[in-house]
Structures are given as C-alpha cells and as structure tokens.
Amino acid sequence: EDALTFVQSGIRQMPQRYAVRVLVGGDPDPVVRAVGHWGTVEPDPDRGGCVLTMNVDSLQWPMMVLAQIEADFEVESPPELRTLLGSTAQRFARATS
Fold first, then answer.
1. Alpha carbons 67 and 88: distance in angstroms, whole number
2. Rama region for 18: left / alpha / beta (φ>0; ψ in -120 to 50; rest)
C-alpha cells in the first residue's frame, strides 16, 4: 500500500464534521474527476444527473469541487454549506461589479 492510499484510508476513518450531499445536473464524469477518491458520485437518472456525497471536516473542499464541475447543483445538506456558498457568491458578485 502506497503512502497516499494509507493517508486517504486513515482520513476516511476519522470522524467528520459534515455529511455533504449535493444533487448535480448533467454528466457525472466531471464530478468524478473533480472529487476523486474523496467522495462518492452515484448516477441519478430520475433527475438526469448524479448525487455527490462527501464526509468532510471543512466545507472548503466541497466548495472547490463544486466550483470545478461547472454544472448546476442543489445542496441537500448540510445547511452550513448553503450558507457558505451564498456568502461566497455575494463576495464574487461584488468583485465583478
């Protein structure tokens, strides 16, 4: 087992603060590429997209993943991620006006 696999395995076993669940529209492949082994992506054919789940201690990582995928999405949980996305969107909007 290489060092990266060892570290990832250890991180996955640590208790995490946030259970992230996001519905993402469109092709799941970009989501899989963006999240790598740090989350799970399952197809959601009923809605024409996929479901991204991640267990994280910091919401910065899911924010970076969501910014990379360039697709519409809906945060189901946690509410703290919705709040953080809203404040970040306002800051970005001010920067472009």
1. 11
2. beta
Q: What does the alpha-carbon distance between residue 12 and residue 73 come to, in Å, rounded to a whole number?
A: 24
CB contact set of 63 (below 8 Å; sequence gap of 6+)? 81, 84, 85, 88
The helix (H) or strand (E) run that includes residue 41 is strand 40-44
pLDDT tens-digit map of 31-84:
999 999 899 999 998 888 999 999 999 999 999 999 999 899 999 999 999 999
Which of the 8 DSSP states describes residue 61?
H
β-pair partners for 20: 54
**What b-and-e string marks burial along 4-29, b requiring 16 or more CB atoms within 10 Å of the CB?**
eeeeeeeeeeeeeebebbbebeeebe
Alpha carbons within 13 angstroms on the beta-carbon side of residue 70 total 3
